[in-house]
Amino acid sequence: MHTKDAGTVGELAVILQLKQTGYSVFTEVGDNSSIDLIVVSDGKLLRGQVKSCKLVNGSATLPLRKAGPNGYLRKYIDDPDTIDFFALYVHDMGQIAYISAREAFESCPGSTRLTFRVEPAKNKQERGVRYLKDYANFEGVLRDYEQRT
Known about the structure:
This protein has three helices and nine strands. With 149 residues, the protein is α+β, with helices and mostly antiparallel strands. The radius of gyration is 15 Å and the shape is globular.
């Protein structure tokens, strides 16, 4: 599947899940913004960026950058005026992880990606490990957003 098609499938999966949960969702026309969709919750507008990936070695990776013109990669900025959350659609599993932009950037400062484990690490490491299943609920983003505002 072409990467643009994979991204579209990911966005549609996220929109479907959010709509089925009762949220109003608005989408971007085009593909040149850091915001893919806006979710309305209790009158608040939350701006989201949707990414999609496949599993690699039992992990799903959320890139914290966006491809721009001519292959230029720009990093998202943890700024309340830019983005509120990321949604990561994992094609192999059909699962979605939601993480607030604040948590994403604070948990890995200076990094260009965030990793979610699906299976335990072979070396049995638990400290600092982020499991995909723990981010399956959009309410976690809402809790972080409420604390931030």
